[in-house]
């Protein structure tokens, strides 16, 4: 077996957010069987420094700082007729790096992580190509369009249409297209019936996310409800605004001391403003999310727009926390009934209240959830399918 070229839209380190967790563990898995050459974007100066921390799993690393503005990306998209989420990642330096690796190395497999990186696939090459879309992004923008007003509605409709066309074109060129859940894979199969599509689910490092692990404990007087996530991501923003504004007041009628902690990096003005509401804390970036999860009486995932497997739910389950999730946040996870699924202001709030009212039942649910993650979501089990796709049998 020859070398592997791994293209990623973000440096797969540290594994502290959903996309980086998946790309990091896949990169590690692939690196056990062949030399891996990583080419990835860095969102900021700190990300750019993380590339070298992947040396133990990679044969070479090329990290390019992404600095293109949204305005420039949209302008290029309008001029070229391409999706803006693709032009946002268009960069000559990455294109040159791909050409250099392909010319200088015996590349047997190209693993493309995230649809934005598919633009760097060569027109002709003997390597097998595995396209990990993760989620069906065109469906995400279609959902955005449904709830948006003009002119943003037109922008999202355009992106959904062009991105859908781009996804189908890419799927027709590659050996196999991967998605994070069976539901996402099935959804894409309906739009690209001739493509080979498979699901490779996310896992969770249950040794790291362990309530008995080595992390700093937090003092948590009174009931603590915790949401974790990247707080400049629109579905997360909408989720916490809804919960803080509409669900938390209902909960505090029964549990006046209940607090809601929004834990995650890059909260914008709309999220920071929630800290003015009674009982709401906005932490921003934290050194270790496990302390907050361990202190949580209940972890919540009230997303109305969610694609694939929600890592925030798996993390809370692995930390033996009782979880209340919306149907959208829960649908990609085979939780076996170990979390509560609820919707609507009253229904979601009542589910949280029931857990706060019965700490013994909440503890039992959390323990069952942890057992479920250990049995069902270990990374080695989730990624075993890659050995079939990229191993001696290949993806063809």
Automatic annotation (TrEMBL):
Keywords: Transferase. GO terms for molecular function: glycosyltransferase activity. SUPFAM superfamilies: UDP-Glycosyltransferase/glycogen phosphorylase. It holds the Pfam family Glyco_trans_1_4. This is Sugar transferase (PEP-CTERM/EpsH1 system associated). It comes from Stakelama pacifica. The lineage of its organism: Bacteria, Pseudomonadati, Pseudomonadota, Alphaproteobacteria, Sphingomonadales.
